[in-house]
Specification:
The chain has 328 residues and is of the alpha/beta class. The chain has seven helices and 15 strands. Helices cover 26% and strands 23% of the residues. Strands 10-9-8-11-12-13 form a six-stranded mixed beta sheet, sandwiched between helices. The model is unreliable at 1-34 and 42-47 (pLDDT under 50). The protein binds inosinic acid (IMP) and magnesium ion.
């Protein structure tokens, strides 16, 4: 009977139990003493044997939100040849508090199809088992559904999906900071930011620049049908003549704002004037502005978070996401 075999396997399976029959994914055995469980001890993160980097990332997200997890604690038999189990399925994670198994999947269609087949069989044989197949962008939404994480907050129900997650942002900002530090070695650059969208990016970026530097901020009025043109509502506090100026932008869309500002700043005669933008919506560009440093090129979507707003909302999200159509 399926039931009795299952309970035997469940008891014996786990890191020191039966060899896994999952031939689809490259498989790495968990450490042999005990099951790998959250939270990730920082010293072992580098050597923790997850079969795929996305699994480690998922474990980190779970740790971040304080959700308990176990890595591959149980194997489910799917097919027998007489008494012999010839196929098994070992879901990636078990979340005890939610009584849920999670199988992560990448975008490679061949693997997804095979996983879907296994899941179908598993659900037929073990209808009581709660298992979910997750794509990367699903992680955050799943967590939100169970009340964890920023997506679960009342005022950000409008997020459609996460375009760039916190880890990706931090990694890229660190790289940009390093590059700026190299390129401006021996100088004391002035970073000029345009409020307010640039707030998160600028504060993270400057902490990754290993040079003495100064900060300046400007504010401008954005397009509205009553105004005749861009108005500078807050100008630089100090002159920039003869200085190396790096304009920091959150996002360059049509390029019109930046073009206006660069023209204005040039009249103040800096020694050099370059641009560092976190996001580049290149497909929407109308005015060609030179961008020296670009964090991410993004598609033609309205994005919020990490400083960017929609009607002053969403600036405090730690990631960059797109809005649901009805909330735009
Ligand atoms: P541009 O003049 O069309 O390049 O617009 C640049 C400014 O528009 C940015 O500094 C943002 O303040 C705003 N903006 C453009 N696209 C977005 C977006 O997707 N989300 C939030 N703000 C945006
Ligand atoms: Mg802006």
């Amino acid at each position: 009977m399926a039931e009795s075999v299952e309970s035997e396997v469940s008891a014996a399976a786990g890191p020191a139990g039966l060899a896994r029959a999952n031939s689809v994914q490259p498989h790495v055995e968990a450490p042999d003493q005990e099951a790998v469980t959250g939270a990730l001890p920082p010293v072992t993160q580098g050597v923790m044997k997850f079969a795929h980097p996305s699994e480690m990332e998922f474990a980190r997200i779970l740790d971040f939100y304080g959700v308990k997890w176990t890595y591959e604690p149980r194997s489910f038999p799917l097919r027998w040849d007489g008494d012999r189990i010839v196929e098994m399925f070992t879901p990636d994670f078990y979340l005890p508090d939610l009584d849920m198994y999670i199988e992560l999947t990448t975008l490679r269609q061949r693997l997804v199809t095979e996983k879907n087949r296994k899941l179908r069989v598993l659900r037929e044989l073990h209808p009581d088992v709660n298992i979910k197949l997750l794509y990367k962008r699903d992680y955050h939404r799943l967590l939100a559904k169970y009340g964890y994480g920023p997506l679960a907050q009342e005022d950000i129900r409008g997020i459609e999906c996460i375009l760039i997650d916190t880890g990706q942002i931090q990694k890229r900002v660190m790289e940009l900071g390093r590059q700026v530090s190299l390129d401006y070695t021996g100088t004391h650059p002035v970073l000029v930011g345009v409020l307010k969208g640039v707030l998160c990016f600028m504060s993270d970026l400057m902490r990754n620049i290993s040079l003495p530097l100064s900060l300046e901020f400007m504010s401008i009025s954005y397009f509205d049908s009553h105004e005749k043109g861009v108005k500078i509502t807050k100008d630089l506090d100090r002159g920039i003549r003869g200085q190396h100026v790096l304009m920091i932008e959150d996002i360059v869309d049509t390029g019109m704002t930046l073009n206006y500002l660069l023209n204005y700043l040039r009249t103040r005669e800096p020694a050099s004037l370059k641009v560092c933008t976190l996001l580049d919506k290149r497909v929407r560009r109308l005015v060609d502005v030179p961008l020296e440093y670009v964090g991410f090129e993004i598609p033609d979507e309205f994005v919020v978070g990490y400083g960017l707003d929609y009607m002053e909302k969403y600036r405090n999200l730690p990631f960059i996401g797109t809005l649901k159509p009805q909330d735009r």
